Amino acid sequence: MKSLYVTSVERYSGKTAVCLTLGKHFQMDGYKVGYLKPLSLQPWMLGGRVADEDAAFVKEILDLNVEPWELSPVVLTTDLLQEHLSSNGEIDHMPKVRKAFETAAETQDILLLEGGGSLREGYVVGLPTPQVAHDLGSEILAIIKFRDQIRLLDDALTAFTRLGDSLSGIIINRVPAVVKDFVNDLAVPFLESRGIPIFGVLPEAHTLAALTVNDLVDVLDAEILTKYYRPQSMVENLTVGAMTAEAALSRFRRYPLKAVITGGDRTDIQLAALETSTTCLVLTGNLHPSPLILRQAEEFGVAVLLVRSNTMETVEKIETIYGKTRLGQTKKLELFQTLLNENVDFEKLYKAIGI
Question: Which one of 149, 193, 284, 332 is least enclosed by Cβ atoms within 10 Å?
């Protein structure tokens, strides 16, 4: 049995997406695949038990014959943290992790382990990724999300420095088209010359970072003013309508499938948005729009959401989830699977982890 620990330098880099799509790929190649998240910082009540937030989705996608709460042996709740701190950090959680690892590995060919949100997590309870992976004898795959040219190189070198010989290689994620040549022609050869294998470079796909109208309703606690709307309609861009109508129209035309955030009293901005590719209007300040806006929005299939917060507060709420949506949608998972199949050297990856 082989185990592969998938981690990243920072949060929201694509670890869960990689775990799920790798798992599906392994399964299609005939391997029996298991999954475990040794430490979860995302507690979720499921069937009266504490589980990881993504556990049910992972179980469904990989068709695992286990209960969701069995997929993460240590879920760090407020109570568990307080208990750990009260003991002066003397509680050893590793035996519980090791037992779950051994149970999950039974009858499997490959066990996928998902690390914490970043390499900084887990130290307070004695379960940092480097130590857990080493103790379990797992190979490590690091996901590096492209931010900018320098940060890409520093993040990759940081992963190599902190993970050492346990690092089997790296997948670079969300690379914009404008820097593709830099990454492939300069960054990858540089990193590989430093002894860091690169298994693949995944291009940026805006659809993967997109939100749905329902996501916005949930995070904003919004009132839906349109009678008919599509809750799963995608929002790929966010635009704040705080300019003149003429300037807004020019800007709106450049951004398709967008959410326009503006005051409920800005009828001119709302009309401009409805003339372009707009998924929804988010009206701030608890100000209801004119009946004209609602009639046109209904006609065009554009959702109109009303929120109590002001525009700045609304933008800040959306930014807490924008670009960080987990792969809870089958279409997103299928797209990511395609990206992985087209851009990852699986022969090189398989060889590195010994399968």
Answer: 193
